[in-house]
Amino acid sequence: MNQTINLRELDERIKEQSSFVDSLIMGMDSTIVGQKHLVKSLLIGLLADGHVLLEGVPGLAKTLAIKTLGELIDAKYNRVQFTPDLLPADVIGTLIYSQKTEEFNIKKGPIFANLVLADEINRAPAKVQSALLEAMQERQVTIGEETFKLPTPFLVLATQNPIEQEGTYPLPEAQVDRFMLKVNITYPKPEEEKLIIRQNIQREKKEIKPILKPEDIIEARKVVQQVYLDENIEKYIVDIVHATRFPELCGLEHLKDMISFGGSPRASINLALAAKAYAFIEGKGYVVPEHVRAIAMDVLRHRIGLSYEAEANNMTTEEIINEILNSVEVP
Fold first, then answer.
1. Positions of E strands within 120-154
2. Considering the domain boundaries, does residue 76 fall inside one?
3. Does residue 108 belong to any structural domain of this protein?
4. Which residue segment(s) compose the domain that 321 sits in?
5. How many domains does the chain have?
6. 172 with 80, same domain?
7. How many whole angstroms separate alpha carbon 35 and alpha carbon 59?
8. What's the CA gap between 123 and 91, in Å, rounded?
């Protein structure tokens, strides 16, 4: 009985404290036409303190969405265009010798921001990718002999173009695993595209006023941690991730030869954190199976390796995840 009352109180408190989410979404909608899934994914990454990998063809408002989010939370935003000749120092910073003082001065790179857009991350060589991903994981950067903490909140939003493979350096699986979510961005609907045309013909740039400060996001993250995750939901998350490794245990013997590797424990952790953030966005004080199912695709799609047999049969990770979600028992 006490737990029921506590959950009710928690639900009311989180509904109240998540009220700013609607304002953020409205602010994003004023600039971004459609792309509801993209907007929600960016908010989950921001609230769950996880980085996001966006995949989609050019021109789908990926950069605009991230820039708008930065303006709405009054955060420092930097964009790095990744190219084959980029060096790690161009991202994290370097030491510059001053002839005047005869000393080395530290010049911080664009990584020192709250929101960092790594545009076309697969265009840069492995050394640059690993420098960025190390900063993402450690939340700090070493330049020379000094170590600097990155600002809080710190969120990397990387984009990659799935069509062009020439002159690209695909991210290794171990590095892709550092991203909490991998979101596939799709084309807008015809009605949405008409509205996009009208907005761009008028060329009226809407002024975006900040509605939050970075400190508010830090406080919101503390509230997200309070979202209740029942043991049954924990078991459900573990069962889903376990099924990506051993599909035969949940009656999916035909998938056994289709998967070369499944999700790591990082997949379970991120599934739980993202589900909590999703529940918060929905104004709920507790996670239900629908919240887990809603974000499972984005959390797992880059964590499952397809075998040659799966590729020969044109099977996608999305199809495998759907089969697993339909087979694992829902609490």
1. 140-143, 146-149
2. yes
3. yes
4. 223-327
5. 2
6. yes
7. 12
8. 14
pTM: 0.87
Would you say how long the chain is, in residues?
Answer: 331
Output 293 or 146, whichever has higher pLDDT. 293
Tell me whether residue 18 is in a domain: no
Question: Which residues lie across from 141 on neighbouring strands?
Answer: 148
Specify the CATH number for the domain of residue 143: 3.40.50.300
Assign 165 a pLDDT band (cuts: 50, 70, 90). low
* Residue 297 near residue 318, CB atoms below 8 Å: yes
Which structure tokens are listed for 238? 């573990």
Please indicate, yes or no, whether residues 165 and 249 belong to a single structural domain of this protein: no
Do 66 and 177 fall within a single domain? yes
User: Residue 241: helix, strand or coil by DSSP?
Assistant: helix
Residue 237 has a pLDDT of: 95
38-48: b (≥16 Cβ within 10 Å) or e = bbbbbbbbbbb
Q: Does the N-terminal peptide bond of residue 153 adopt cis geometry, omega within 30 degrees of 0?
A: yes
- Residue 167 and residue 255 share a domain: no
Residue-wise pLDDT tens digits, 197-245:
877 787 666 777 888 888 888 888 988 898 989 899 999 999 999 999 9
**What is 26-94 written as a DSSP string?**
HHHHTTS-S-HHHHHHHHHHHHHT--EEEE--TTSSHHHHHHHHHHHTT--EEEEE--TT--HHHHHEE
What pLDDT shows up at residue 142?
84
3-state SS class at 98: strand
How far is Cα 182 from Cα 54, in angstroms, rounded to an integer?
6
- Quick one: tokens of 304? 């499952």
Helix segments in 203-307, DSSP class H: 214-226, 231-245, 265-281, 289-300
Please check whether residue 47 lies inside any domain of the structure: yes
